[in-house]
Structures are given as structure tokens and as C-alpha cells.
Amino acid sequence: MTSKPRPTVYAFMDESGDAGGNLRKGASAYFVLALVETTQPELLREELRRLRVALNLPAAFEIRYHDTRMEWARAAFFVLLRSLDLGLRAAVVDKARLPQEAQAWGERDMYEYALGELVRRSSVDELSEAILVIDGERGKQQFVRKLRQHISKIGREQKRGRIFKAIVLKESKREFGLQYADMVAGDLAERTKHGESVYDDYVDAKIKLLLLLP
């Protein structure tokens, strides 16, 4: 009897804070990268639609942490998050503690560093067949290609083969999973800046891996 194939994991990735490394030129003090992982992306979409209806929000309203400032809406979202079958993986980068050369880092460098550390510290089989979904349009194809090369290098170094069977670009206003990732990244950024967030318990209940880097 053949074994039943495992369901595909979708890892929706978004960030909080800019990816620049030079604090003297106004870069944010922290960079937060969050992955929301699920085998039921359709359920995430449907539940977010229902939440919009329940909160009387416009159908086109994009639920993002810095745009969803109403406390009642944020609270309802994080209650929903805790009720769903999903996992969270995130990295918080304290840029002041990075080596001197990081001051010259651009967007791709910071993403490669944060995502690379999440990959390195995940078990061999967790992300091998996952589909990584990134917020962006077609103009970021080179960014995706370089990111794929970096992750593939880690796979070779760790002798674990392929990591992420696909990396795809989607627009967050159409891909609701990315809106979950934005909300989680925003909450973790709030926690980093102020020591805590009122939604910490809801987020912590779903965290599989949280890295404080470096």
C-alpha cells in the first residue's frame, strides 16, 4: 500500500521595518520577517472574508497592521489567527548588533540573512516541499532568483537537498495569506519596540520558531 502524500505547505512571507542596514542614514532599528505556514490556504482566505463581513469592512479593505488601526479590528483578527490551524516562523533582526559590513546591505541582503537563518534552524523535512509566497510584482523576479540561489546554497551546505519547491510572487491585496503575515510581522515589531503587545498570547500560541538575530 502506497503512503498518502503529505499536503503542500504554503509559507506566506512578509516583513515589518525596512531592509536597509545603515542606521545612520535613517534605516529602521529592527527588521522583522514573518512566515505564516498552512496546508489550507483556501481556509485562510475564506475566514478573512468572513471577518471583513463580520466587522463591516469593505470587501476591498486590505488587512495590514499599520492600516488596520482600529483596536477592535486588530483584536478580532488575532482571535481568528489563534483559532486556525497554522504555524508561525519569524526572525527579528537588531541591526545595531550586525557586523560593520551590514551597513551596506540592501533589501536582498537582509532578506537572505533573515530567511536563511530561519531555514538553517528548521528541521530537514519542514520546508523541503513548501511553497514560499512573497509579496511583490513581476519586477521582483531577479530578487526571487537570487533568493532561490541563496536558499539552495544553504541546502547544499546542510546536505538536505531542495528547500522550498517553489518561490512565487503574489500581490497582498489579492493573496490573503500575505495579509496574515503582515499582521504577524507588525505585532512582533510592536513587541520588539515596546517590550510587549496586547496580542502576544495569540501570536505565541502559534509560533514554531522565533529568532532574535544576530
Can you summarize this structure?
The protein has 214 residues and is an alpha/beta fold. 38% of the residues lie in helices and 19% in strands. It has a single domain, classed as Nucleotidyltransferase, domain 5.
What does this structure look like?
- The protein is an alpha/beta fold.
- It has a single domain, classed as Nucleotidyltransferase, domain 5, CATH 3.30.420.
- It has six helices and six strands, in the order E-E-H-H-E-H-E-H-E-H-H-E.
- The chain has helices at 41-54, 71-83, 107-120, 141-157, 176-194, 200-204, and strands at residues 10-16, 30-38, 87-94, 131-135, 166-170, 207-213.
- A six-stranded mixed sheet has the order 5-4-1-2-3-6, with helices on both faces.
- Helix 4 links the parallel strand 4 (131-135) and strand 5 (166-170).
- The longest helix is centred in the last third of the chain and has 19 residues, at 176-194.
- The relative contact order is 0.23.
Radius of gyration: 17 Å
Q: Tell me the β content.
A: 15-25%
| CATH topology title | Nucleotidyltransferase, domain 5
The helix/strand order is EEHHEHEHEHHE
Give the helix tally.
Answer: 6
Regarding CATH, which class? Answer: Alpha Beta
Structural class: alpha/beta
Domain count: 1
Helix content: 25-40%
Ranges where pLDDT stays below 50 over 5 or more residues in a row are none
**pLDDT averaged residue by residue:** 93
Q: Write the CATH homologous superfamily.
A: Ribonuclease H-like superfamily/Ribonuclease H
Give the N-terminus to C-terminus distance in angstroms: 47 Å
Largest sheet: 6 strands, mixed
Annotated CATH architecture: 2-Layer Sandwich
Number of strands: 6
**Multimerization state:** single chain
What is the 3D form?
A: globular
Q: Strands across the major sheet, in which order?
A: 5-4-1-2-3-6
